[in-house]
Amino acid sequence: MAAAFPIDVSTLAEPPRIIAPAATLFAARARRFAQLAEDHALGDWLRFLALLTQAQHEAFAAIPPLSLPAAEALERARRHAMPPVPALHWQRDGAWRAALRRITAALADAAVPQAVRQSCARLEAAPEAALEALAGQVLRNEPYDADTALLPLVAAALQVYWTALAAALGAAHLAALDVHGLCPCCGSPPVASVVRSAPDMNNLRYLHCALCNTEWNFVRIKCAACDSTTQIAYRNLEGSPLPNAAAVRAETCDNCMSYLKILYQAKAPDGDPVADDLATLALDLLVDEAGYARAGPNLLFVSGSS
Predict the structure, then answer these.
(1) Is residue 192 a contact partner of residue 92, using CB atoms and an 8 Å limit?
(2) Strand 232-235 and strand 205-209: pairing?
(3) To which H or E segment does residue 232 belong?
(4) Helix 151-169 × helix 114-125 angle, to 10°
């Protein structure tokens, strides 16, 4: 199976600090969702997410060339350690709405629950201003309302758009931010982190952006939310029958009472930070009950939306 982030490490003098998303990312994620759905208590939902991420792959493949920051803007962003295409301030164009239409059309032709079909129909009928308002809700992580069921689909389209921006920019145009726990491409928080097992990246940890799927190197045993290196602990689902239970842990920080999951690639070579996160929601319940708050969102999951 092709890796989601193929890199020719033979040409690298040192491990990459930043990894831009590859064209295979959404397809690999769809396969991982389908794999994790087997014999899972949330199997039907995970199979739906496999369909959704496959639709993301098709929308990503069809996205046209996008307007990117000018050379001066890129240099200014690097000089001031700012994201070049910030989620909250970038002037997004209609390409993301076209991606949304492709996603809803693909789901309408698939075996999905009636509630999903209704959400797709609502989005297809919504005026441009309403769609942009929903996009703003997702990007600002605002409190959810009657439109909760629509937001994962909107988020899926925004992921396609920003992932295309990140892929077009490439790692060469990105630099670490002053706030190390935020994405160097779009400034969003991470959904999870991955401890890589590939050559030249063995045992290195990368945070994975919840929005644009960029990854950036982050030291081990450090809180991504507050940078604390003390009062860090790890929790996992002991005795769980889930196939990825041993590969996913929650890194908790008693300094800020937050947590972020870590996926260990050595234990799950085909693992995906988004898919493996959602397949281990029982771990979220465990750390939530212990008083920890999640440090970064998974945009495909909104409580009460499924």
Answers:
(1) no
(2) unpaired
(3) strand 232-235
(4) 70
Query: DSSP assignment of 142-174, as one string?
Result: PPP-TTGGGHHHHHHHHHHHHHHHHHHH-GGG-
User: In a structure prediction context, what are the per-residue pLDDT tens digits for the chain, which is 306 residues long?
Assistant: 334 444 444 444 589 999 999 999 999 999 999 999 999 999 999 999 999 999 999 999 999 999 999 999 999 999 999 999 999 999 999 999 999 999 999 999 899 999 999 999 999 999 999 999 999 999 998 867 778 999 999 999 999 999 999 999 999 989 999 999 999 999 999 999 999 988 778 899 999 999 999 999 999 999 999 999 999 999 999 888 898 999 999 999 999 999 999 999 999 999 999 999 999 999 999 999 999 999 999 999 987 555
Residue 117 neighbours by CB under 8 Å, 6+ apart: 107, 108
- Fold annotation for 190-294: FdhE-like fold (3.90.1670)
Please say whether the beta carbons of 115 and 149 come within 8 A. Answer: yes
For residue 190, the SS3 value is strand
Angle at 35 between CA 34 and CA 37, to 5 degrees: 65
Q: With a threshold of 0.85, does the pTM exceed it?
A: yes
> Is the CATH number of domain 15-173 3.90.1670.10?
yes
Nearest Cα to 122, choosing from 95, 144, 104?
Answer: 104
CATH 3.90.1670.10-classified regions of the chain: 15-173, 190-294
Tokens 């939530």 locate to: 288
Q: How far apart are CA 150 and CA 305, in angstroms?
A: 8
Structure tokens given for 81: 């350690």
DSSP string covering 288-304, please?
A: HHTT-EESS--TT--TT
